[in-house]
Amino acid sequence: MKLTKNRKAIQGKVDQNKEYSLPEATVLVKECSTEKFDASVDLDIRLGVDPKQANQMVRGITSLPHGTGKTMRVLVLCTPEKEEEAKEAGADFVGLDEYVDKISQGWTDIDVIITMPAVMGKIGKLGRVLGPRNLMPNPKSGTVTTEVGKAVKEVKAGKIDFKVDKTGIIHASVGKRSFTPEQLTENAAELITTINKLKPSSSKGTYFKSISMSSTMGVGIKVDPSTVPGI
Question: Which domains can be identified in the chain, with CATH numbers?
C-alpha cells in the first residue's frame, strides 16, 4: 500500500516500538489527527482475562470528568407517571408502547435507552434488535432503574458503560480531538483506573496487556499503563 504524504508525516511522529506516558499520548493523538471533522479519541485496552469464563467478565460504568464530547440521544421507556421526570432531565424521546413498536420495526436512531424494572417485560422481546447494537438496557449499566431522571442526567453528563469483548479488549471513547490534552488525560485515566478496580480475582498474570489510543482515523499510540495514577 502506498502511503500518502500526510500518513508518512504522521507515522514519523510516532515510534511504534515505544510505550508513551498517558500525557504524552494525548498530545500525540491530537498532533496525528488529520480528520476534517472533530474526531473521537478512543482507547483500546487489551486485558489479561478470558471473557469466556463468567468470573473473568469485566463490565462497568464510569463518569468521564469532561464528558464524551458527543451529544447523546436518550430514549426513556417508562410508565406515564415518570414521563415528566424524564423530560425535565433532558431525555430526547419519552414514551413506551409507541417506541416499542418503532424499535420492533427497526428504529434505533438513539445512543442510550433507559427504562424501569416494571416495563422490562415489554422490552425483553426487543433483544434481537437492540442486542447487536449494544442498546439493550441493563441494571449493571444503570439503564434499568426507577430513578430515570437521575440516569438521564448522568448519561448526558458523560457517563459511559464498557464491556470486554470476546477477544479480551475494551473499546471506549474518551473524548474528542477538540478536547485539551489535559481533558483527554483525565478522561482516559478515569476509565483506566475504573477498569483496574474491576480486575477479577481469578485473573492471573498481567492485567493490562496493552493500551492504545487513537483518533477515529489516526494511528494507534501505545500507552504505558504504569504512567496512569493509581495503577
Answer: 17-68+159-227 (3.30.190.20), 74-157 (3.40.50.790)
